[in-house]
Structures are given as C-alpha cells and as structure tokens.
Amino acid sequence: MGYFLVKANVRRGRDAKLKKEGFIVKATDYSFAGVKVGSELTPIDPTVIVTDVNLKNYVEVFMIEGGDGPLYEVQLEFDDVDGKTVKELYLQQANATAEAEALLLENLSDPNVEIVNTKKTNIVDYFIGE
Q: How confident is the model at residue 59 (pLDDT cuts 50, 70, 90)?
C-alpha cells in the first residue's frame, strides 16, 4: 500500500465551475487510486475526470476524528541508530500550522524528532482503498 495524490476535475453543483482538486488515497496501485476517487466523487459529479495520479512518499496520514480542517504536510528529521539523518514526510489534519505540528508530535510520541518544515496543502480529502 502507498499514498497517491490523485487530481480530478470536478463540478460541485449543477451550475458550479469545473475545478481541479487533489485527493490523497491509500491504495495498492495507481489505477485503484484513480478508480477510488472517481467512485467517491461520482455522486457529486457524474462527469468527474481523474487527470493525474502520483505516488507520494508520505509515511502516514493522520486525520482528526470528526474534523474537517485542512491537511498539512509536515517534514521531520531524526538521527537513526547509525547516526544518519533520516527525513520523513507526514500529512496531518489540523486547523492551523501549530496545531498540525503539535498533533503530529503527539501521534508519533517520539521526543527525538525535529520538525523542519510544515505547509498547508490544497488536498481536499483522504480516502482509504479496500
């Protein structure tokens, strides 16, 4: 399983403009990730078109239970047992940058990691493939 960034052209409402939106899908392969987004969005827009699917190097995605805040991409660094610096990338749902960082550190519960970069993404939703 991997994390895929799927971009799709979707119209949210009969008279709405067509927009390109991004979704993260945890899936076994590219084609399944694209199909998953298409099936999730078809009730909203029967003419949805998946335009791009890319594998992302996220270690994990953490969502807030019952939350609807944006997803933040958080890059961490830590030294492994050999003294080499390891960089990892996570997605954390939160309402602000500081909250994303605090929640991620809480989720990981490892005092030896350092946050080196956090940025808000334009990802609309997260789907888990079967």
A: very high
